[in-house]
GIY-YIG domain-containing protein (Stichopus japonicus), 231 residues
Amino acid sequence: MPNIASIIKGHNKRIAATHTSKEKEACNCRKKDTCPLNGNCQASNIIYKAEVKTIDNCKTYIGLTEPPFKLRYGNHKMSLNHEKHQNATELSKHIWQLKQNNQPFSINWSIASRAKAYSNESKRCNLCLTEKLIIINTDKRTLLNKRPELISKCRHENKFYINNSSPTTKHRQENHTQLRSEHRRKAKNPTTDRTQKRIHQQPNTEESLTNPQTERTRKRILRQNNTPTTA
């Protein structure tokens, strides 16, 4: 069983490897002319911009993604095509409002900037900071993002916590927590466990009366004491 030091070392090694590995920014779309990001749908660690154009105006939505953009784009497509997910993002809320008003629209996706996500070495997330900077500098009259996004906590550092490590480590920690809770319960109520053990050890009276071997033993003891037995 590995100790805590080896678990932490292996966890940090896996996370660091994802940042040092070279990612090929390309397009894996079957039809290259339909790529949502102009041939860069596999780009990662980017801040993207979605421009929603209608007949009379143009709205802008700013987002970010650490994994490849195509994974995030799939989530956007789900919220834009299924009404039950219409409140997933500010972009989906605006699109469904246009659909309900029967207004034609088009969406243009582009890369606004690139930055590194949270690193255990730098202790900062340039990806989230860059997104907030772009939101601040965007015209508020055309911006779909809301102000609370500027004070939201970075979610990219969560993967560096031991609690969010591999399933094996989580299972081991849950078992350890259950054992500690059991020991505390026994320490607080030692008499309860002893009473339960006595209850399990006591013979059942009804079973002893119907047991032939127990009945023969009773009759033998009565004969030795010259006591008449009852049928």
Summary: Residues 83 and 149 are 23 Å apart (CA to CA). Helices lie at 4-20, 69-81, 90-100, 126-137, 167-188, 190-201, 205-210, 212-224. The radius of gyration is 34 Å. The mean pLDDT is 79.
